[in-house]
Design a protein that fits this description.
The complex is a heterodimer of chains A (600) and B (194).
Chain A lengths: L9 H7 L12 E3 L6 E3 H32 L8 H32 L10 H23 L17 H30 L9 H31 L7 H35 L6 H14 L16 H36 L8 H4 L6 H24 L13 H28 L8 H27 L23 H33 L17 H4 L8 H8 L11 H26 L3 E2 L1
Antiparallel strand pairs in A: 1-2
Helix pairs in contact in A: 2-3, 2-4, 2-14, 3-4, 3-5, 3-6, 4-5, 5-6, 6-7, 6-8, 7-9, 7-11, 7-12, 8-9, 9-11, 9-17, 11-12, 11-13, 11-17, 12-13, 12-14, 13-14
Chain B lengths: L21 H27 L7 E4 L2 H15 E5 L2 E4 L6 E7 L2 E3 L1 E5 L4 E7 L4 E6 L3 E5 L3 E8 L4 E7 L11 E7 L14
Parallel strand pairs in B: 3-6, 4-7, 6-12
Antiparallel strand pairs in B: 1-10, 2-3, 4-5, 7-10, 8-9, 8-11, 11-12
Classes of the chains: A mainly alpha (600), B alpha+beta (194).
Bound molecules: protoporphyrin IX containing FE (HEM) and copper (II) ion (2 copies).
Amino acid sequence: MNPDSMPPAGSRAAAAAAPGYRPDSQSTFRTCPVTTRRIHDKAEALVKANAVTAIVFLLVGAIAALLLVLTRWQAVHLLSATWYYRLLGVHAMSMLIFFIIFFEMAVLHFASTALLNARNAAPKLSWAGFGLMLGGALMVEWKMWAGKADVLFTSYVPLRADPLFYLGVILFAVGALVVTFIFFANLAVAKKERTYEGSLPLVVYGAATAAIIAVITLLHGAAIYIPTFLWSLGLMEVDPQVYRLIWWGLGHSSQQINVAAMVAIWYMLGALTIGAVVLNEKISRSAFVLYILFISMASAHHLLVDPGMGPAWKIVNTSYFMYMAVLASMIHGFTVPAGMELGMRLRGYTNGMFEWLRKAPWGDPGFSSLVLSVVVFGFVGGITGVTIGTEQINIIVHNTLRSPGHFHATVVSGTAMAFMGATYYLIPLVFQKRVALWPLARIQPYIFAGGMFIFTISMTAAGYFGVPRRHWDITFAGAPYSVPFNPIVDFLLALVALGGVIAATGAFIFVAISVKSVFFGTALGEITKGTAMVGVPRGITHPPTHATDVDARNAALHDPARGLMGPAPGTIVLVMIFLAVFALYFFSNWKILSFLWKIG
Amino acid sequence: MHTETHTGLDSPKGNWWKPAHRAEKVWVGIAFAWCMVLFAMMPLWHWKGGQNPSGIRRKVEPAAFMARTQEFIREYRVGDDRGMPIVEPPPGSDIYLMGMAFQWTPILKLQKGASYTLHLSALDVNHGFSLFPVNVNFQVVPGYDYGLRITPNSSGDYRIICNEFCGIGHHLMVGRVIVVDPPVTAMTTPGGGE
Ligand code: HEM
Ligand SMILES: [Cu+2]
Ligand SMILES: [Cu+2]
């Protein structure tokens, strides 16, 4: 049977026509031809503005990235010292803060309106939030490019930047806080106006998790940037260690916003591309709650070799609290692929362990982004992150290239990759355009993730030799003593450059596709289900809907007679491989540590 | 039409707090057990392992730390290298290293197998202590004294790279640690000891 010929999932259609559904009179809605959801024009405009702004910052960050890798590659050593450090700040702020958070704001607007058939509760305030964020971001960029804030994005006190730099960050954060509150207001209005039946969809629940963590994060942000702003004006003192503690309360929890948003997008892309189902709502939702409960304490793993805190504090905060968040990620790392596997099996791809993977739409950039994001985030980002965040192992890692090697595998290959995948669906569904440069779009995720894979692995390897991060010249020309690195380091840094250039190219292609589609693209036009179209992801032309007897099929796959492997045996094999790699990497690091001088 | 089986984009109807399949429960159990292993390794290493970032930690005024370091240099100075004092403290003693943009003061001359309490602090901004090529890294924060018990296990000419950004001259900041073999007569236990 052809699974694609089935009618759309009933629950979606039912939600659009939910009884008692009364949009307020001033709002204009359109009905999405693909998902049959009702989309509020004002909400949609906000999604568009935030997404486009995010992508502009991605462009700025990627240009800086290209120049940075070409500087770290000692054979080329492109930038001067001053510009290397300056652009390092620009890169991190533009990417980690502006690109990622503007995109998250787009996700929040989208999840709280379009996914619920709901309206934006306060469009004017939403635009005010957007304006504050943009104004703050431009202020920060201005100060950095002008050389008035050569303090990198962590701006560790007592390094001092122009007060307007800190003020810009504060404005940006206040704007983001406003948007976050609007997200909750949208949810409340949707509930009140009964635009959907039942509980929040899991994707919206994940977005809500991200929003709650965002509030916690932004409060830490206020707690540190407001005093630092006053300090920069000479009005108060800020202790350097206390600064690091609270700054990482902001800096680390914000990574958890990224993780929660990324996981929500994993569930969304799984549903859109291959009809991934939710294995068990209880488990997935509980895992999101673990993120909220335990994450702000994980800031400790940035301070493991700091003088201000003792071992008990370090262990409790990294292990008890952080490992519960790690547990949550390990749960999603199972439920997401298992939901994908089950979704495919329910649609008839039941042969062997891996037919569900072999027959998956690998040419759909939404799908390939999803898989690459899950794999690189889990295998590289997750494993390295937990390992280097161990109290003692951090001694051989802190501030070496292993650190950026790790987080480019999480927030870049994981979060940024997932956001790119989501964009390939936002372009047709929200912007109502075809994806431009389609042949390039189909390979873009492979370019970006492939480049990042080489980049992160070789950075991690260089870090083993003690190569420092944030360092302009490891040949130490001009320094009083020579520092003779193992010659293999030259090779590794060349690989870092190779991977970095490939990844940056992937980012540029993505920007080109997005800009061309949105501003110069062809309208989406009529979609004939079952007919492939250039510039339209397969999940839209061939919606991965389930047969009406899906519950019966699901029950059959859950039959206890199928044994412990259950409905998703392929995933079990994959997670076992994951666990083995994890254990191997973890314990080999302890082994390396044991060869060092005795320290204590 | 209403199906129980749904995607993450659909609202679950009714009560979704339902028992999970055994496979999922088992995975949650395994993941939890693994997290406990990750946790247990840290206290275990404090107990049995030789490398821990514990140290003696206290607040110190930068000026006081500088005065203490200068006194230390006066006491044990054995020479200098282009103006930077070389200091050879007796095994077992407290030794001092201060970071400031863009140098580490002084040069330390230590004995293989002997233990010292290395006090690290910064006078101006954060610096990063990175012992090359051993690859031991600590954060050096102004206003805080980090006293770490160290025991060099090999002789040689080592470097201290600064690996925390401390200003535009950051990449010029390199210090030096020399580890020499202990004099034969002084060796009470083979290979030295605590
Ligand atoms: C497009 C591909 C990218 C490339 C080639 C790239 C490359 C680099 C390089 C070479 C560094 C400097 C490492 C060092 O010398 O210490 C760096 C730092 C960094 N990157 Fe990226 N990056 C990319 C994308 C991103 C993205 C998307 C994000 C965030 C979402 C990001 C966040 C950061 C951060 C936070 C730092 C640390 C800056 C610091 O140490 O102050 N990067 N990146
Ligand atoms: Cu320094
Ligand atoms: Cu430095």
